[in-house]
Amino acid sequence: MMPLWAQTPSDSTRETKPRIRGVQYASPEDEAARLKQHADPLFAGVSVSGDVCGAVMAAFCSYGQYEGAVRVNLKNRYFPIAEVGLGRSNHTDDESDNHFRVSAPYFRVGCDYNVAKDKFSGNRIFVGLRYGFTSFKYDMSGPPIHDAIWGTEVPFHFTGISGNAHWGELVVGLEAKVWKFFHLGWTARYRLRLSEKQAPMGRAWYLPGFGKNDNSAFGGTFNIIFDI
Amino acid sequence: MRKKSNIACLLPAQWRKACLACMVSAFMLVSGCSNIECPLDNIVVMTCGLYSAESHEPLKLQATLNVKPAGRDTVLLNQASDIKDFLLPLRQAAPADTFLLHFSDNAGRMGTDTLFVEHVNTPHYESIECPATVFHTLTQVRWNRQTSSQFPLTIDSVALVRTAVNYDDIENIRIYLRTVAP
Question: Model-level pTM greater than 0.80?
Fold first, then answer.
């Protein structure tokens, strides 16, 4: 008989309990606290953030940016954001020995949307859009240009060349709540240059806030975020 | 229940996410690609087309043409014949060029016309990886015929059709030639 019992479904030996649906709380007070926590106000807070990735690049690479942002939380779904930064580049090309230098502010405004299923968890998944703008002056210099026919040299040294650029960004990001008001997160960005003022001698190698100057660029940020 | 031995499990879930974010950022930091986009045709020359003054059609020069800059014994165009156009480099450090066009034929007839070209020079770089060069903007073109010329072909007029002299090999000036009595 024992092997036969062993084949008997175990559920058949248990006492069937009524199945309870939904979240159960230990007390009405707990339920009230939970409801209060999950209240869904239009204005749910403001946070400030800084980009560590750009700062590391500015310190150790040929270009980078120091960037901060202010973000508003609306219903834990919509996050209008303003980003301000200082883009810097000091780059000499190994092949041509041309040198490019810029240090200028840039601005971005846009909005993120939290697509996470549980919007109250503090961990967020973002998709968003940005509009970016920068106005800058850059220096460009290099070896003198040699005229092989006449044996003359034309100096190649320009300072204070003015330029500006507008671009749009598609943003995808993650954010994790580490401790109370402290969050860490990253964003990946696809940037599309909309317009650019180009000087007659040539375009800027780096656009503050955009990255290396091209029709499009990829970028990213690693953010330290504080809810205030 | 089997316990996972992954070291990541030692970290709280939130710190695991933070570590993942750091790794992704580091990847984005180091994963860049670059390509050099210097133009293959990086010679800046003025393109001169030859045309018939009578028909205004492109003219194939049957004679031999040499071009030199005035004041310098450098040949810019050497013994060219059967050509419809030719290229001339402009001075990078001066705003004007004077070219001597020496026509000759097998009969020993020779003639020299002079072409004056005024231009504005602008240093230019295509990319930081590329060596800089000088682009020109043509402002004025003049010509004259030397009195000692015996050649039955001379410059009738010169038209400025494209002022920008850059990497594009597009016709900049049209030189209309006419037949004259020797």
Answer: no
Q: Could you list the beta-strand ranges (E) of B72-168.
A: 77-80, 85-88, 96-104, 110-124, 133-145, 153-160, 164-165
Q: How far is CA A128 from CA A12, A39, A169, A173, B115, in A?
A: 53, 24, 8, 9, 61
What does pLDDT average to over chain A?
87
- Using a CB–CB cutoff of 8 Å, tell me whether A106 touches chain B: no
| Burial tier of A26 (Cβ tally within 10 Å: 0-12, 13-18, 19+) | exposed
CA-based angle A56:A61:A64, to the nearest 5?
60
Phi-psi region of A180 (alpha: psi -120 to 50; beta: other; left: phi over 0): left
Long-range Cβ pairs for the range A17-20 (8 Å, 24+) = none
**Domain assignments of chain B as residue spans, ordered by start:** 45-178
Report yes or no: B31 at the A interface, CB cutoff 8 Å. Answer: no
Residue pLDDT, tens place only, B26-82: 555 544 455 566 887 777 999 999 999 989 999 999 899 999 999 888 899 999 999
Q: Which of B29, B92, B128 sits opposite A57 (nearest CB)?
A: B29
The total number of residues shown for chain B amounts to 182
Please report which helix (H) or strand (E) contains residue B148, including its range: none
Structure tokens at A85: 């930064």
Indicate the CATH number for domain A43-227: 2.40.160.20
C-alpha–C-alpha distance, residues A215 and A195, integer Å: 9
Answer whether B92 sits within 8 Å of A200, measured CB to CB: no
Residue ranges per domain, chain A? 43-227
CA separation for the pair A122, A99 (Å, rounded)? 45
CA dist B125 and A98 (Å) reads 9
In B53-109, at which residue ranges do the beta strands (DSSP E only) sit?
64-69, 77-80, 85-88, 96-104
